[in-house]
Amino acid sequence: MSFAVADEFLAPPPAAPPGIVVRGVSRAFGSVRALDGIDLEARAGRVTALVGPNGSGKTTLLLVLAGLLVPDAGSVRIAGHDPVTEGPAARARTGWMPDAFGTWDSLTARQVLLTFAAAYRIPPVTARLRVDELLATVHLTEFADRPASVLSRGQKQRLGLARALVHQPDVLLLDEPASGLDPRSRVDLRLLLRRLADDGCTVLVSSHVLAELEEMADDAVFISRGRTVVPTPVTTQSTWHVRALSLGALTTWLTSVGATWQPGDGSSPDGPGSVLMEVSGEAGAAALVRDAVAAGVPLTSLGPVTGSLEQAYLTLEEERR
Amino acid sequence: MTAMSPVAIDDTVPASGRAPRSGTWRLTWQGVRTVAQLELRQRVRSTRWVVALVVWFVVVGGLTLLLSGALSSETMGSETETGPLMFGAVVYLVLGLGLLVTPTLTSTTVNGDRNAGTLATLQVTLLSPAEIALGKLAAAWLAACVFLLISVPFLVLALFRGNTPPSALLRVVVIVALLLAAVCGIGLGFSALVSRTAGSTVLTFMSVAALVLLTPTLFGLTFPSITQEEQVTVWAPPASWNYDGQPECELTTQTRDVSHTERTWWLLGINPFVVVADGAGTRPTPPPDDTGGGTADPLGSIRDGVRDLRSPDKVLDECWMYGEGTAPAAPDRHTPGPVWPWGLAANLLLGVVGFVVAVRRLTIPSRKLPRGTRVA
């Protein structure tokens, strides 16, 4: 660590919290280079998706950000604080939810949260109010006084989320938060993260479920083999799903205007059905809708086959490990 | 959704210029209590613990009563004569069982939490590593002390047989409690050092076994190497004595096998059983000629034995078996000092080492991970 870095935190903190700033972070475990020069910036007030294949270093990166691992090289700032040299200051502002974590089975959900509140030095009176509020937020109020051992996997996941929020962190690090959650809880999670971001929180979420990340994330960071990868910009041509009430009317019109298409679902020309076709981005889609409606085709829906995140992900040329 | 209520967080940003990683050893009562409370709740809620307490009470109580019955039979002499024997036996029973139970209280506390995925979430809070370690140590020690406390009635029972000063009860309880604290510290250290719970448990038990069994074994094995022929002053009957009547003992210089136990006494001195025996403060052993045999006091005998080994007599008394007149034989006989403070300190030092190891291992962010573990 150079003196320049040390001087940096003697200076008054910048007015706008920068959220998460990662510069050239590397970390090796023996001969395995888990992180190999990660650059990342997550802004306050936004939900940033952390996307990458298995073993790409997502969890290791989150451990470094949470202040559990010292990076071999590079610098990290969490809300302006270095987790290595200013551990307590950074940790006071970080909420971390690991991908796999346990709960103390003998404690009730409320006791778990109160324990963490005490561990974050929150005064007991404030802590009790805060815990009640959090239990309501993650819909565990009715389980508040039952031992954590009776909670289902999804409920434990929600308890883990409440635990990460107990000290109102400025920066939230979530590793696969949606795994094990039922659809209702996933929607709740999305809304909660949205609300936290709108309140000025920096949210970094890793997940494999790209469709779900797509719904909640404002920005995306791709990592592969321990490096940040800038995906090649999504080509203007992408495959879209075009659906109409009458498959026959759709295909006849498409053929008449000379478009190339591939059959989707639906076989009867009179019944509803869909086709797959290459569309030039959203502008192309808008033109397609306008022309189809003008030609009297009973169009019902139109959408990209894969999400933009997924497309970007698939364009990553790195292989799985 | 309502806005979150404001939370006051005790900002622990170290004042600028403080060394990095400061706060590792920061201790607050609130932090230690949080961890200790968590640990105790975890343990007490599990019924296993209550069962263990009941089993302990029954075992110690049963053995004490059996012992009491055995010592009350006519052949063993009067109650007052067997009092110190009874007291010593119960003390050793409690200490022995305590040394068996206590390692399990801490030997899985860190790596067990790590395996269960609850350690890292605690480490990322504002609790300092020292608070986590001390909280775990305090909880385990309190649990060990509960075992000790429910044994006190049986120690009192032994006290009632007489011939043991009541202060011995207090001294024994305090010394045993401190020894168990040392064992807790050793277990804590191993649990932080070794990633597998089975490994740390075995190592903790081995350490306790080394203290209890290995030390006297080593003492015995090294005995020949510290024994050599030397010229010593001997208080013995004159060579001219023809085994008839009272000899006129005299001081002569003769060649004898001398064991320099002052070099190895500490092997016995760090043994927890010796520490307790020496520190118990039972009555001084009466002179051998007192009322034919006197009372059997195992603690006192061990105390006197170890103290003699620490500072062997300068003058060899070979005249004692020939009746009276042995007293003037030891011109420079000094009263050997107690060994238990040293032994207790050595045990506590091991416990402190374990504690320090645990704190260092709990410090985050960590540079290296224990082999084969994930952080979370």
Task: Characterize the structure shown.
The complex is a heterodimer of chains A (321) and B (376). Chain A is built from eleven helices and 13 strands. Chain A has helices at 3-8, 58-65, 87-92, 109-119, 124-137, 153-165, 183-198, 210-216, 247-256, 281-294, 308-315; strands spanning 20-29, 32-42, 47-51, 73-78, 94-97, 171-175, 202-206, 219-224, 227-229, 237-244, 262-263, 273-280, 299-304. In chain A, the strands form three sheets. Chain A has a six-stranded mixed beta sheet with strand order 5-6-7-3-8-9, sandwiched between helices. A four-stranded antiparallel beta sheet of chain A has the order 11-12-10-13. Mean pLDDT of chain A is 82; it is low at 1-15. Chain B has helices at 29-45, 47-72, 79-106, 109-116, 119-123, 129-149, 152-159, 167-193, 197-222, 265-269, 272-279, 298-310, 340-362; strands spanning 227-236, 250-259, 315-317. At the A-B interface, helix 2, helix 3, helix 4, helix 5 and helix 7 of A face helix 1 and helix 5 of B. Chain A: InterPro entries: AAA+_ATPase, ABC_transporter-like_ATP-bd, P-loop_NTPase. Chain A: This is ABC transporter ATP-binding protein.
Brief write-up:
Chain A: Pfam families: ABC_tran (PF00005). Chain A has 321 residues and is of the alpha/beta class.
Terminal CA distance of chain A: 32 Å
As laid out across the biggest beta sheet of chain B, the strand order is 2-1-3
Taken as a percent bin, the fraction of beta residues of chain A is 15-25%
Helix-strand pattern of chain B: HHHHHHHHHEEHHHEH
